[in-house]
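User: Can you help me understand a structure? I only have the sequence.
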Amino acid sequence: MSADELPDTTPRLRAGRVLRVRETACDVWCDGAVASVAFAPMFPSPRVERVSPGHLVAVATRVDGREVVVWRWYDAVVVGHESDGSVRLWEPAHGEIAATPRAGYRPQEPGARAYASAGLPGADWWVAEAVGSADAVPAVDLDEVGAFCSRHGLWSAAFG
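Assistant: Let's start by predicting it. Here is the structure, written out as C-alpha cells:
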C-alpha cells in the first residue's frame, strides 16, 4: 500500500533531517523549514544518546496537525561491499555493521555516506540511500515504516 492509499486514520509520513536533539523533541529540517517535533512516547530513551544531528527521521502527522518522530535512520559511512551483496557500514554508535540494500539503493564508493536503519522486517540492518544535499528529499522506506507501525498497532501509542 502506498502512502497515497493509506486510510485517513493513518498519519502522513515524511522525512526530516535532525539539526538539534533534546530528550523530548528534536529540531528537524523538513519541507523547507525548521520545526521542533516531539518524539513519540515509544521512541527509545535516552534520546539524546540515540539521535544525532545528521540523522534522518520519519515525522508522522495526524489529520489534526499533531506531529511526532517515529523512526530514525543513521548517517553511516560506507566501508565496502561484501560478496553476498551486503554493504559494510560504520556508524558511530554501532561500529561496523553489514546492511542489506533496500530496492532503491545505488552502490556507493567507500567513504561515502548512506542512511541506515535497523528494526524493519527482513534484515538486522538496511541501507537505504546515499546521504545527499540538504535540498534533496531522500528516498527512504517511509511506506515500510508506516506499514510496520500499522501492523504492530503503534499509531495510538505514537500519539499517546
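Now, to help you interpret it: The helical segments are 142-151, 155-158. The domain at 3-73+142-158 is CATH 2.40.50.140 (OB fold (Dihydrolipoamide Acetyltransferase, E2P)). Let me know which part you'd like to focus on.
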